[in-house]
Amino acid sequence: MKQAIKLASCGLYTSYPNPAVGCVIVRDGKVIGRGYHHKAGLPHAEIMALQDASFDVEGATVYVTLEPCSHYGRTPPCAKKLVECKVARVVAACGDPNPKVCGRGFAILREAGIEVVEHVLEKEALFLCRAFMKSIVKGIPYVAVKTGMSLDAKTALCNGKSKWITNSESRAKVQDIRAKSDCIITSSNTVMADDPMLNVRYEELKKKNRKKIDFECARQPLKVILDSNGNLDISKYQIFSKGQNLLVCASDNLEELNKETIINENVSKVYINRSSDGHVDINSLLEFLGTKQIRKVLVEAGSKLISAFLDANAVDEIYAFVAPKLLGKEARSAFNTYNVLDLSCCREFTLHKTKRYGNDVLLHYLLED
Predict the structure, then answer these.
(1) Which ranges constitute the DSSP H helices of the chain?
(2) What is the side-by-side strand order in the sheet with 89-92?
(3) For residues 15 and 45, is the Cβ–Cβ distance under 8 A?
(4) Annotated active-site positions, please?
């Protein structure tokens, strides 16, 4: 199962909107097939492993990170194919909460006399597919926030300059985080201040990560730019020159809400419900992105937008890259969330992992749910 989970991690870069799934087939103590799901519309992990084993799998045990599908979508149901190939046993890490599956895959296998074992390394598999799981269950994307800050929790000098607080190793890790995201959300203020591209620079990824990626299926995330009052001139900024960009404005007009219109080949526009403070309502935005089957979003912006997501209780995890620099009391703070009047009311994240990148440190926090 550990091998299957490792294989599944390769699909994190390309399987959107499907989950990243890995599969290993064993017979007589020997691995005879391996596979993972590369991209929606292509064979699922079980079929890739069956192909690797030349479909000679009678009596074998199949280790798979997610319950085999039971419905006809872009591909036929994997559960029925496993029955057809006469495997003896299926060991699964976790069930699929998708209403189209949700136990039906296991039922098909058991009805055919195939032994099914569940919950093997379930925690690890659920973590790998945490974005897919939340999206399927709640109908809104999983939200990650990335910030690069100084030791005194500042993200820019008092004059707004921020290039570069963190080092090149940290920035390479950011490329990996972007590559595993379905869309990147930023603000018009960030666009006007930094003129970023916010694309994935695959060449900056570590060699071991590049080896995981099926570059025939690689993509650039959708870039979502929040421009509440519609003041951004899209002809002036390079972010709108390549890839797919969604410009999001705020509106009180019910007739124009959630209707996406095309501006040009790179840019479309949508109006989202206006919040009480006059900006795009964060939760309404996430609901709209959920209708587009966006599973995971990465928020890369200044403290104002990041804090808006935190204040909306919409953040599932935080990547905080901390550089050993002090920018001073007049520098711009990383977070400006609402004041808390009692320590018992603080929103609390769990430290999942720390990792050193040169002299920088990544603090990776998760919201336990």
Answers:
(1) 2-10, 45-52, 78-84, 104-111, 122-128, 130-138, 168-179, 188-194, 207-210, 282-291, 303-311
(2) 30-36, 22-27, 61-64, 89-92, 115-117
(3) no
(4) 46
Query: What is the pLDDT, as a whole number, of residue 102?
Result: 80
Q: CA–CA separation, 270 vs 255, rounded Å?
A: 12
For residue 298, give the H/E element and its range. strand 296-300
Burial class (CB in 10 A: 0-12, 13-18, 19+), 72: exposed
For 179, the 3-state DSSP assignment is helix
| pLDDT digits 0-9 by tens, 313-343 | 999 999 999 999 999 888 888 888 888 777 8
Residue whose token pair is 């603080």: 346
pLDDT above 90 covers a percentage of the chain that reads 83
Tell me if 92 sits within 8 A of 151, measured CB to CB.
Answer: no
Question: How far is the C-alpha of 280 from the C-alpha of 24, rounded, in Å?
Answer: 45
Tell me how many degrees the CA angle 344-347-351 measures, rounded to the nearest 5: 110
Judge if pTM exceeds 0.90.
yes
The whole-angstrom separation of Cα 229 and Cα 214 is 40
pLDDT of 345 reads: 75
